Amino acid sequence: MLPQPPPIQRVPFAVFRQRFDGIAPQQRITSGTLRPAVRNDVIGDKPEAWQIARMTYADIAYRQLYKGIDLRYEGADGQLKSTYLLQPGSDPTVIRWRYEGIDKVAIDPVRGDLQLAIDAKLPADLAKVA
What we know:
By secondary structure, the chain is mainly beta. It has one helix at 124-127; strands spanning 17-20, 28-31, 34-41, 51-57, 59-66, 69-76, 79-86, 97-100, 104-107, 114-117. 3% of the residues lie in helices and 45% in strands. The protein is extended and about 70 Å long.
């Protein structure tokens, strides 16, 4: 007799969006350091929609997000870090963003880091069976 598979674990999740206002029309996304790992997104029952062996990167950058300003994202140990790179003569006061789906915004009093809090929940369709 085969062993029974473990029960399905319902994991809460949350989604938020960061929107940039007034970005430059010529901005583009570039990949950074290629990582050795690949990612497989097997969602749903249609193999043609699955994304297999996708490359992963240590960082990405939005080049010319604003005139003379790049935005670089990098992740490590479950943390996402963003860094603005300004060319000489660029104007940092043009940088504007807003968040959608955030429950609380704070600044760490010791390190000065921006902290975003999200209340993770089970999606409505999974909460019924959890």
